[in-house]
Amino acid sequence: MRKLSYLVLFTAGLLLIASCSHRETYADQKKREREAISRYITKHNINIISEAQFEAAGFKTDTAKNQYVLFTSSGVYMQIINEGCGNKLNSGETATALCRFTERNLLTDTIQLSNNILRFSSIVDKMTVKNTSGTFTASFLKGSSLMYTAYNSASVPTGWLVPLTYVKLGRPVTATDQIAKVKLIVPHTSGQRYATQGVYPCSYELTYERGL
């Protein structure tokens, strides 16, 4: 019941943000979003690299330099912390991915949702993901996803799918194996349902592990 009450209040807060944004034009909202992203990048001393630089570096980001690659087509920024273990999801393959995440609303600069906190630590978000010739699609599993519960949608933010081209989706076998971990800055056009409606960006710290 406590969890349900928390999510009701959380949803009400998001609806309030969305209703306030209706008073602005879409151009105003996008400008506000760009400014929020710019503030976040400056505040955290993020070093932006191009896709060409990312490719030249072997599709890796230097965490010591706090590098994020900007994908210009989507506006998503990504830092790979751990590439992960096992193998990447092959073309034509469908798998279950287990995710832990922390979502921060960049307009308010506050943590909005997370299954890394004690209240929701028992929930590991599950999504079914498919690779079709390099294009990834995915859906959250009802009853096994905090994102599904909070946003009442099985749709996985397209920003969450961007890293799957570059990280491995495996399960640790040895003590030194690490699951894939990334940081993302996701504009509303690649975000979850309420971000899309309210025109606000989110940052994520996100892990991926292959399910059984």
Secondary structure: number of strands: 9
Helix content: 25-40%
Report the C-alpha radius of gyration, rounded: 17 Å
Compute the average pLDDT. 93
What is the number of helical segments per DSSP (H or I, 4+ residues)?
6
CATH-level-2 architecture: Roll
CATH class: Alpha Beta
Low-confidence stretches: none
* SSE topology string: HHEHEEEEEEHHEHE
Structural class: alpha+beta
N-end to C-end Cα span: 30 Å
Strand content: 25-35%
CATH topology: Chitinase A, domain 3
Give a nutshell description of this structure.
Residues 1-23 form the signal peptide. The chain contains six helices and nine strands.
What do these coordinates show?
This protein has helices at 2-21, 26-43, 51-56, 146-151, 158-161, 193-198; strands at residues 47-49, 67-71, 76-82, 94-105, 110-114, 125-132, 135-140, 180-186, 202-210. The longest helix has 20 residues, at 2-21. It has one domain (25-210): Chitinase A, domain 3 (Roll). The mean pLDDT is 93. The chain contains six helices and nine strands. With 212 residues, it is an alpha+beta fold. Helix content is 28%, strand content 29%. Strands 1, 2, 3, 4, 5, 6, 7, 8 and 9 form a nine-stranded mixed sheet that branches. InterPro entries: DUF4827, PPIase_dom_sf. Keywords: Signal.
